[in-house]
Amino acid sequence: MFAFDGGYDPGEASQTILFELRRTVVRHPAVQHASSEPPGQFIRVVATLDPAALGSDADEGTLTIRWYAGETADAEPEFAVHYSDSTEFDCGWHHEPNPHVEGWAHYQERSTADDDYEYEAVEFGSLQPVPLIWAILNRLEARLTDR
Amino acid sequence: MTDASGVERWKEHQSAFDRVRSVAVTVSEPKSADRIAEQAHVAGNTARDHLQRLVEMNVLQTISGETATLYAPDPLYTRMQALRDLLDSRDRDDLLELRGALQEQVEDWQSEYNSDFPGDLREQAAHADTAEETREMRQTANDWEIIAYRLRLVEDAIEHYSDYAGSTPAPA
How far is B167 from chain A (nearest CA, A)? Predict the structure, then answer.
């Protein structure tokens, strides 16, 4: 992403990606609504889901997306795509420095807010934000259907 | 493979043009038509046609690469789109209020972490006592970078409010 003066601006790059993610995610059949949060700040996208469309019997579900494009144009992005629902279950696919697995890419989940997270290293085929979000929504559906 | 069915679902719900656009405007560095085609799951010629249209619409600009034309988001379009989103639901007073809130957020981080810039905080994060503190500080530095950009955008919108808002009626 290229800033107004031609240089790389991580804030602008991140925000442009969040903007596109908000735009694409509402096209998914399980997503009812997506907004930028906190209002006016736009540091994450929060989507309201229909958990039944993802194979869950929870009444309400939310997907929260954080995305930071990286300090330099060739740096890897830091992101988290995290699901939580009214049964207290939450899980997410993250790509960020962490002490739990080797490397940045991991999946974490817990059954209730009182439990500790369980972590697992994962691989992402591509770090391109838009196709990645569709791949993650599919992994989420597979996980929720499995429960 | 669940990722492959994710792609199928994406193709079902977003047109080839939309897929090419969304990939091309989110690249971190200029990319060739073939590379964008691969990421957007469209044929090379389809990508080239759509990319050409996006260049004509000033959404993208071209850069001559060593072996192929490269495509990158047009910075003017990126800025315009962000301003439009900001101005769609806010009048001048809302923007002034938002500027105040964003400034306050930055000042809170500056005093909490005794850092002037997100880069300072990132530096501190590397030397934090626990992995959890490092994670939190890095995440705040990332958020800060976005808020700093947001602040510049809001200042631009305030400064040129009458030009940008045009005759758009004030939101109810």
Answer: 22
Tell me the per-residue pLDDT of B117-162, one tens digit each, with 9 for 90 and over: 999 999 999 899 998 899 999 999 999 999 999 999 999 999 999 9
Contacts of B66 (CB under 8 A, 6+ apart): none
What CATH code is carried by the domain that includes residue B65?
Answer: 1.10.10.10
Question: From the CA of A41, how many Å to the nearest CA of chain B?
Answer: 6
Are B13 and A1 within 8 A, CB to CB? Answer: no
Nearest chain A alpha carbon to B82? A16
In this structure, is residue B172 part of a structural domain?
A: no
| Pair (B82, B53) in one structural domain | no
Q: Tell me the ipTM for this assembly.
A: 0.92
Yes or no, beta carbons of B29 and A68 under 8 Å apart: no
The verdict on residue B160 lying in a domain is: yes
DSSP result, A52-119:
GGGT---S-EEEEEEEE--SSTTSPPEEEEEEEETTS-EEEEEES--SSSSSSEEEEEESSTTSPPEE
| Residue B96 sits in the same domain as residue B58 | no
CA distance A87 to chain B (A): 24
Domain count, chain B: 2
- Contact check, Cβ <8 Å, B72/A2: yes
Which of B73, B94, B120 is the endpoint of a domain?
B73
- Domain hosting B98: range is 77-165
Q: Say if residue A38 is preceded by a cis peptide, omega within 30 of 0.
A: yes
Q: From the list B13, B39, B150, which residue is nearest A128 (CB)?
A: B39
Residue B170 in any domain: the answer is no
pLDDT in tens, A16-74: 999 999 999 999 999 999 999 998 899 999 999 999 999 999 999 999 999 999 999 99
Residues B81, B67 within the same domain:
no
